[in-house]
Amino acid sequence: MPGALHRLVRMMTFPELASGLGVTFKWFHKPKVTEFYPDKRPVLPYRAKGRLHVDLETCISCKMCERACPEDCIKVFQPPKEVFKTDKRPVQFFISLEHCIHCGMCVDPCPTGSIHHSQEFEMASYLRNDFLFDKTTLPYDLDVKHFKQGILENVVEKGQ
Ligand code: SF4
Ligand code: SF4
């Protein structure tokens, strides 16, 4: 009988409803934390590791990034020996972002600072080929500016 009475009291007073409403009212006047992506672009942290970009004009085909990559995502093709003496820029440069884990291990050993993470994070695609970048599809000069600008904006905004 006490059990039935207890159930009846609970049914009459709706404690779960009261508890839920309490949480709602508690957060009602607090600032909203939801981000309205994609209408409002998020400001990424200063050290966000987005899509890799390579400056193929300053790259000297040393293959340090290729050797450092734990996922074998990078393949650099040096020019023929006779050309290499005067022009060290790669004849081909592949990056497979399908397998890239954004660890940054290719960035640190680069002697010319030619490879870096951008703040570009929208990389979804239905096609596997979209993740394989070569010399013609690796955008660099525009994105380097965009990357540097992105850092600057973050530094200013976050006071870093
Ligand atoms: S970020 Fe890491 S996994 Fe991606 S290409 Fe560079 S070294 Fe390889
Ligand atoms: S480490 Fe730098 S300079 Fe060397 S191949 Fe990679 S991107 Fe080019």
Salient structural properties:
160 residues, alpha+beta, Alpha-Beta Plaits, 3-stranded antiparallel sheet, rod-shaped, disordered C terminus, binds iron/sulfur cluster
Give me a quick take on this structure.
It contains five helices and five strands; from the N terminus they run ααβαβαβββα. It has helices at residues 2-13, 15-28, 64-68, 81-84, 141-158; strands at residues 52-54, 74-77, 92-96, 115-117, 132-133.
Molecular structure report:
The protein has a domain at 52-158: Alpha-Beta Plaits. It contains five helices and five strands. The strands form two sheets. A three-stranded antiparallel β-sheet has the order 2-3-5. The N and C termini lie far apart (65 Å). The radius of gyration is 26 Å and the shape is rod-shaped. It has 160 residues and is α+β, with helices and mostly antiparallel strands. The structure holds iron/sulfur cluster (2 copies). One iron/sulfur cluster binds at residues 54, 59-65, 76, 110-112, 114-115.
Q: Tell me the helix content.
A: 25-40%
Q: State Rg.
A: 26 Å
Q: What is the annotated CATH architecture of the domain at 52-158? A: 2-Layer Sandwich
Quaternary structure type: single chain
* Main sheet characteristics: 3 strands, antiparallel
What is CATH's topology name of the domain at 52-158?
Alpha-Beta Plaits
Identify every distinct bound molecule in the structure, by name, code or SMILES. iron/sulfur cluster
